[in-house]
Write a structure and sequence with these properties.
The complex is a heterotrimer, with 1 copy of chain A and 2 copies of chain B.
Chain A: H1 19-22, E1 23-25, E2 39-41, H2 48-57, H3 68-84, H4 91-108, H5 120-146, E3 164-172, H6 175-195, H7 204-215, E4 222-223, H8 224-231, H9 238-254, E5 258-262, E6 269-273, H10 275-279
Antiparallel strand pairs in A: 1-2, 4-6, 5-6
Helix pairs in contact in A: 2-3, 2-5, 3-4, 7-9, 8-9
Chain B: H1 4-7, H2 12-21, H3 26-41, E1 46-47, H4 48-54, H5 61-72, E2 77-82, E3 85-90, H6 95-98, H7 110-122, E4 125-126, H8 127-134, H9 140-149, E5 152-158, E6 165-169, H10 171-176, H11 188-193, E7 220-221
Antiparallel strand pairs in B: 1-3, 2-3, 4-6, 5-6, 5-7
Helix pairs in contact in B: 2-5, 3-5, 7-9
Classes of the chains: A mainly alpha, B alpha+beta.
Chain lengths: ~280, ~240, ~240
């Protein structure tokens, strides 16, 4: 059970009680004269112990000198009154009532010959102790909540500069890491050099660019090999240079830039700038 | 050098007497200046360990803090200790000038405040002990609210049938309520003398001192990994 | 009361003289306490107007601030005026204590590890040589990290076109990897025996005998003062 605040209706184990309905005048003539009607609001109590403490306070004596018998009677009257208005009471109120009724009868009756049951005086004292303990914790809670609070009464520095921790890196590596990094990378590199030995290839674009430079000079029939293969290519490149140049020359013939002739199969290729262009 | 521990509770008159008796030398003055600057600059209460890490080797921290505390007792800002941590904060009697209108801290319900008080004065406390003192069942919401404030923590489990979870207060609790240590709780001595919080102990066994140490008591054990079979399973801090 | 404006720039000696001459009375002490708390708790520098709003009617602000400032001059925290606003600030000479270095362990990237190994075995090595051996371009970051470790140093320049910087290892390198001298680095046979190289190596593959002589080799010359025209100009340790 939790009470949201002192006034709002709280949730109560009995559940669904309308506050207005829960409020009623308690029967009882124990009140001091002049005191306002003892209006009991079940919602206002946090359980039977809380109610008992409130009733005990009305005895206006030190809790250690309280009359537990009187207290039990008041509680039972309260419960009786609540039942008369058909107020549904939480089970723990009724359990307490049953226990207090038992305690009351034990306090009033002479002790049974065989004292097998607990001494009623002990039980009463224990109840008084519980009430005292509840009252004490209430007072403690009160004192605690009256303490100056941080952020309300006490303030820390509004704008602290802050303490810096500068993280200086501390590198760690083992000799094994170092050696294996070295070995792995050198081995990889050594092997990839062998397998990836690339052939040098003259691209079509490169061949065309070279050819265009040559054409300017080739007013007369000239062999392709004389210019390109001899001067540009190393022996290893000869084939790719010849192949790419031939393809590029066919392109240029098609565009009407040069003439191309070959006297017989596998004979040298002759190349000449188109006459019309040469005349310009 | 006077007994330092007693200085940590010193009042203005004690402080004046202490300062009249003891005068820090130049080296101590310098350690004091450093402590002052460090605690001032820190965004949170500063532990003595952290201070030592930043002070020159062999600096005498304890006397420096004792002097500083004494010097600040009568000022508008006080040096206070919470557990093993230090901070400056405004003097309690100046609250009226500092209070900021809009910032009213959320008020705890009476149930929550009482539960907090039981946990504080009676810790480590189990749910059953809290319910026994208050005479009503403890709602899950109340405990949720308290855990949310950061003032209450789950400490461990009681070595008892059902291994119930034990609750205690945090350093934040001390900080928030301006307590240096848990034994500074108001009225604690009277309550102990009256034997009112001997809940689970038979009479004559003495009264347990509230404990909020990080370590567990003899009758406590770690929370462990098993699911909480309490009604408060959801109280466990999220991982 | 001395001229207050001059007090706002006062030094320790002036402050002592001022405090010896002037003693605040009890009322002034209370205003000082309030100012102290207000400035302390404020989230930004506090103007005198704002202070006046929270002080009792007729409080003498200026002398209180002058006293306060003088009292704080020699402390670890100083009261300073910025324009017409006031704030506490840790004493400038203690800035060193507010920063603390903490070593944070870090691992080298694979690229950095490989580069370090190549420098160790092939030193003195230029950037081009490292790139040639690794088969990939060397990023600036990698070399920065290696220089930061303190294991790699700039040795000099190669007597070659472009006069590229040569890199070598440091004494710290030997220390960290537990080597007495650089020639203790295992050779090809030892590396093979350790299973680090498998058998598939091309003919003529070798591992150099590393050397890290402090002196420059014949084909090296001092770094000199000319600016580094390398891509790694920023690799040079800061002055």
């Amino acid at each position: 059970m939790e009470r949201v605040n002192d006034n709002a209706p709280g949730r109560v184990a009995s559940g669904g009680l309308d506050r207005a309905e829960a409020e009623f005048e308690a029967a009882g003539g124990e009140r001091a004269e002049g005191e306002a009607d003892f209006r009991v609001d079940v919602d206002g109590y946090e359980g039977p112990l809380d109610l008992l403490l409130e009733l005990a306070r009305r005895q206006k004596v030190d809790l250690s000198r309280i009359s537990v018998l009187a207290l039990a009677e008041q509680y039972l009257e309260f419960i009786e009154a609540a039942r008369r208005v058909r107020l549904e009471l939480a089970a723990d109120y009724l359990v307490m009532a049953a226990w207090l009724a038992y305690l009351k009868s034990r306090l009033l009756l002479p002790a049974p010959p065989k004292a097998e049951e607990p001494d009623p005086r002990e039980l009463a004292a224990s109840l008084a102790r519980r009430l005292k303990r509840l009252q004490a914790i209430r007072a403690a809670a009160e004192r605690l909540s009256e303490r100056p609070r941080l952020g309300r009464d006490l303030f820390l520095r509004g704008a602290p500069e802050g303490l810096d921790i500068i993280n200086a890196p501390l590198y760690r590596a083992s000799l094994f890491d170092l050696l294996s990094a070295y070995a792995i990378q050198r081995q990889k590199q050594a092997l990839s050099h062998v397998s990836l030995k690339t052939r040098q290839v003259w691209s079509l674009a490169e061949a065309r660019e070279a050819l265009e430079r040559i054409v300017g000079m080739a007013v007369e029939w000239t062999t392709l090999d004389d210019y390109l293969i001899a001067w540009v290519a190393t022996p290893a490149q000869a084939r790719t240079v010849r192949a790419s140049t031939f393809s590029a020359s066919l392109e240029m013939v098609k565009e009407g830039l040069i003439d191309l002739r070959q006297d017989r199969a596998f004979a040298p290729l002759w190349l000449r700038r188109r006459q019309a262009l040469a005349a310009e | 050098m006077a007994d330092q521990d007693s200085l940590f509770d010193l009042k203005a008159a004690d402080a004046a007497a202490f300062l009249a008796r003891e005068t820090p030398d130049e080296a101590q003055r310098e350690v004091m200046r450093l402590c002052e600057a460090l605690i001032f600059a820190a965004t949170e209460p500063l532990s003595e360990d952290e201070m030592l890490k930043r002070l020159p080797q062999g600096a005498a921290l304890a006397p420096a803090l004792a002097y500083l505390k004494a010097e600040y007792v009568s000022r508008g800002v006080n040096l206070v200790r919470v557990g093993k941590k230090w901070m400056f904060r405004t003097a309690p009697d100046l609250a009226w000038a500092l209070q900021r209108e809009q910032q009213e801290p959320r008020k705890l319900s009476r149930a929550a405040m009482e539960t907090l008080a039981i946990i504080a004065y009676h810790q480590p406390a189990t749910r059953a002990e809290i319910e026994d003192i208050r005479g009503v069942a403890l709602s899950k919401g109340t405990m949720d609210v308290l855990l949310e404030t950061g003032w209450v923590r789950l400490r461990g489990r009681r070595r008892a049938p059902g291994r119930p979870v034990t609750y205690g207060t945090t350093e934040n609790f001390l900080l928030h309520f301006g307590l240096e240590q848990i034994s500074d709780l108001p009225g604690l001595d009277e309550l102990k003398a009256a034997g009112l919080f001997d809940g689970r102990l038979p009479k004559g066994f003495g009264v347990p001192q509230p404990r909020d140490d990080a370590g567990l008591l003899e009758d406590e054990e770690p929370l462990g990994e098993e699911p909480l079979n309490e009604a408060f399973a959801s109280d466990l801090p999220e991982e």
